Amino acid sequence: MAKLILKLNDKVLSEFPITKRKITIGRKAENDLVIQNMAVSGRHARLDYKKGKFIITDLKSLNGTFVNNKLITQAELKIGDEITIGRHTLVLSADDASPALTGETVLPKDGLILNGDSPTRRILSKKKPKDDTYQGEATKPISKLGVISFISNDQPDVTLDRKITKIGKGKEADVKVSGLLVGKVAAIISRRPTGYYITPVGGMGKLKVNGEPVKDVCRLQEFDMIQVGSTKIQFYYQDN
Length: 240
What we know:
Blueprint lengths: L1 E7 L2 E7 L4 E5 L6 E2 L10 E6 L2 E6 L6 E3 L2 E3 L1 E4 L4 E4 L2 E7 L51 E5 L7 E3 L3 E5 L6 E2 L10 E6 L2 E6 L7 E2 L2 E2 L4 E2 L5 E4 L2 E7 L3
Parallel strand pairs: 3-4, 14-15
Antiparallel strand pairs: 1-2, 1-11, 3-5, 5-6, 6-9, 7-8, 7-10, 10-11, 12-13, 12-22, 14-16, 16-17, 17-20, 18-19, 18-21, 21-22
């Protein structure tokens, strides 16, 4: 039977037998395979099984879909290929030569859901962590410094070496961004032992992370896309 092996930082989180000919992957609950992480788009990608071949298609996701480290819109997969979605990797594997596509519903663990053809969708009883990360991940100490890189203009990268970094158009802002609806301090990024967190502060413009409005504190994941007004900024960790 063919299966998808989910990994994060080379650690295996779960294995999912492929029991459907079409599997949607994304952060929203209506997907067949749900990855609850802000780096993953609501509907990120789709895996199809056609004429004995597996085809992965990107669904115009914000951060893109990669196969063996190459950005794709659509690609045929072979056993052993690695699909990168956000910070997670899905490896196509097989226990034998041919997949069994029966439509059977499979309910895996570790905060992800794989729905079959059953009309009743089954939901994990485990609560989703408040910061959109897997349980246990948020408590892991972070030793690297975070950096924000401007995508929409040529401003230099900013190393987040302070406990609090203010983003806005006012004099008090550490990182200046422009825009009619941007507040004097539109958002703050706080550096904590467990990572970096962004919080909306003021202004009429909505703070967004990976295209989704942020209403409360949100833990940043590497390569998250932050939008303040019309300014797009990408967060990543500095190499030691």
